[in-house]
Amino acid sequence: MTAVIGISLSALILAVFLKEHNKTASVGLTLAACFLIFFKAASGLGDVFASLREVSAGVEAAGAYAGLMLKVLGIVLITQFISDICRDSGENALAGQTETAAKIIVISMILPLFDSVINIISGFLK
Questions:
Q1: Given this model, what pLDDT does residue 104 score?
Q2: What is the CA radius of gyration of the chain?
Q3: CA-CA distance, 54 to 63, in Å (whole number)?
Q4: What are the φ/ψ torsions at residue 58 (nearest 5 degrees)?
Q5: d(CA 67, CA 18)
Q6: Which residues, in sequence order, are CB contacts of 95 under 8 Å at separation 6+?
Q7: How distant is the alpha carbon of residue 93 from its chain centre?
Q8: What is residue 58's predicted lDDT score, i.e. its pLDDT?
Q9: Residue 79: alpha-carbon gap to chain centroid
């Protein structure tokens, strides 16, 4: 976590000073810092995958749901990352449309899960 904070603060200070002289270099520095932070944070995903494999090993259907959860999580994280970059570049409309598209994709991915939950609940009510 300290590496992420160090990268963030260093990039912030440098970007603020560069913005006055060269806006393009400032945006490039911000993008580079974003990628460094993203990859630093993504390195911890191995532990998450290992935990999900352990949990889903005992239940047959859990493997499919765990895979779905990971796909949705990936879409959400990447969308947030891209939307933040768009907003930092002054493209608020593009950021909003990216988030809307991601929401639609996530909803379409989890519809089978809703169907399963409804079938389970209706089975309990019979």
A1: 94
A2: 20
A3: 10
A4: -85, -20
A5: 42
A6: 82, 83, 84, 86, 87
A7: 19
A8: 67
A9: 6
Phi (first) and psi of residue 35, to 5 degrees: -65, -40
Instruction: Give the model's confidence band at 63: pLDDT under 50 very low, under 70 low, under 90 confident, else very high.
Output: low
User: Which pLDDT value is given to residue 12?
Assistant: 82
Nearest-angstrom CA–CA distance, 68 and 109:
8
| Nearest residue to 68 via CA among 35, 115, 122 | 115
pLDDT band with cut points at 50, 70 and 90 for residue 126: low
- Beta carbons of 98 and 82 less than 8 angstroms apart: yes
Total-model pTM:
0.65
Token pair for residue 38? 């993203």
Kindly give, in sequence order, each residue whose CB lies less than 8 Å from that of residue 75, ignoring residues fewer than 6 positions away: 102, 105, 106, 109
Q: Is residue 48 predicted with pLDDT exceeding 80?
A: no
Dist CA 55 CA 33 (whole Å): 34
| Residues 83 and 41 sit within 8 Å (Cβ to Cβ) | no
